[in-house]
Amino acid sequence: MLRIKNLSFSFNGKSKPIFYQLSMDVKAGEFVSIIGPSGAGKSTLFKLINGLLEPDEGEIQIKGNKSGSRLGSVGYMPQKDLLLPWRTVLENVILPCEILKEDWRKKMPVIQEWLSRFDLSQYENAYPDELSGGMRQRIAFLRTLMTGRDLLLLDEPFGALDSMTKRNMHRWLLGLWGELKKTVLFITHDLEEAILLSDRIFLIKDGRVYERKVHLARPRSTEQIYHSELIEMRKELEKLIHHDN
Ligand SMILES: Nc1ncnc2c1ncn2[C@@H]1O[C@H](COP(=O)(O)OP(=O)(O)O)[C@@H](O)[C@H]1O
Ligand SMILES: [Mg+2]
User: Fold this and answer.
1) Is 25 part of a structural domain of the chain?
2) What is the mean predicted confidence (pLDDT) over 83-88?
3) Which residue, among 174, 184, 194, 185, has the nearest Cα to 238 in the 3D structure?
4) Tens of pLDDT, residues 52-68
5) What global pTM score does this model have?
6) Start and end of every ABC transporter domain (predicted)?
7) Which atom of ligand 1 is nearest to the CA of 204?
8) CA nearest 81: which of 38, 134, 43?
9) How many structural domains comprise the chain?
10) For residue 172, pLDDT beyond 70
11) Could you tell me if residue 37 is inside a domain?
12) Is the separation of the CB atoms in 10 and 54 below 8 Å?
C-alpha cells in the first residue's frame, strides 16, 4: 500500500535533516501507529506522504505508483480538525465528494449509513460548534473516510480529548475496525493507544525509524490495556523514546 525507500528530507536545506535515508513499508489493511518525541518529524512525514512536501532524496510509492503527484491520493486528517464552522455536520462530511465533483445526493444512503455508525445521525444538521470534542473528531474522521481513499493518514486524531472520551473513541474504533477495510497510519503520543490499536508501531527518532510488532489478538477490546504484554511493550517503548540508543 505504501512504500518509502531511503527518504531524506530537510526544510530549506537546513543543516540537520528531519529524515535521513528512512525506509518503511505498510501493507494493505494494516493499522500502523507512528510515535516519537515532539518535533521528531511525524507530521512532516504525513505531508511528504500526501504530496504537500517533496523528498530531497528517495521514493514514496502509494499502491505501487512511483511517478506523478501524490496529492489527493490519500485521505488526510490534519492535527487540527479544521471543520468548517459555517457548514453543518452533513455539509462537512460531504466536502470531499464536492471537491471530487461526485454527486453526493446519489451517495446519500451510504452517507446516512456511515453517519449512523459514527453515532452522528441525530446531528447531521447541527453545526460543529454545538458538538463535543469526541463528536467533532468523529466528523473529521468520517470526512477523511469520505475521500474514498484506501490509505488514511490520521495525525493525533484523539490527542485533544479527555481520557474518558478517548477511551470511548477507542471502543468505538475497535468495534468498527473489522469492517473499515482501510490502511491506517496513525500519529499519537499516547503509547497505550498506539499499542491497543495497532498491528505495528514505528518510532521516529533522530531521523530514523524503529519498528515493533504488536502481538495482541484481534478483534481487540479496550480491556486489553491491562494485558501484561501491553504493559511490557509500553515500558520498552518508553525507554526507547526517552533514552539514547
Ligand atoms: N514549515 C516548516 N519549516 C521549517 N521547519 C519546520 C516546518 N514544519 C516543521 N518544521 C520543523 O520540523 C521539525 C518536525 O516537525 P513536525 O513534523 O511537526 O514534528 P512532530 O509532528 O513529530 O511533532 C520540527 O523541528 C519543526 O520545528
Ligand atoms: Mg505533529
Assistant:
1) yes
2) 96
3) 194
4) 999 999 999 999 887 77
5) 0.93
6) 2-231
7) 22
8) 134
9) 1
10) yes
11) yes
12) no
Rounded alpha-carbon distances, angstroms, from residue 238 to 11, 145, 160, 193, 234: 28, 31, 21, 13, 6
CA nearest neighbour of 160 among 185, 193, 137, 140: 137
42 lines ligand 1 (CB under 6 A): yes
* Structural domain span for residue 223: 1-74+185-245
Return the ligand number nearest the Cα of 79.
2
Ligand 2 being an ion, which residues bring their Cβ within 5 A of it? Answer: 42-43
Ligand 1 center to 39 CA (angstroms): 6
Give the residues across from 74 on adjacent strands: none
Confidence grade of residue 245 (pLDDT, cut at 50, 70, 90): low
Would residue 26 count as lying in a domain? yes
Which tens digit of pLDDT belongs to each residue from 193-203?
999 999 999 99
CATH number for the domain harbouring residue 49: 3.40.50.300
Give the Å distance between the CA of 147 and the centre of ligand 1: 26
What percent of the chain lies above the pLDDT cut of 70? 98
Statement: residue 244 has pLDDT above 80: no
Pocket lining: 191 vs ligand 1, CB cutoff 6 Å = no
Residue nearest to atom 27 of ligand 1 (CA): 39
Question: Which value, to the nearest 10 degrees, does the dihedral of the CA atoms of residues 138, 155, 153, 200 take?
Answer: -110
Query: Distance from the CA of 157 to the center of ligand 2, in angstroms?
Result: 11
Is position 209 within any domain?
yes
Q: Is the CB of 41 under 6 A from ligand 1?
A: yes
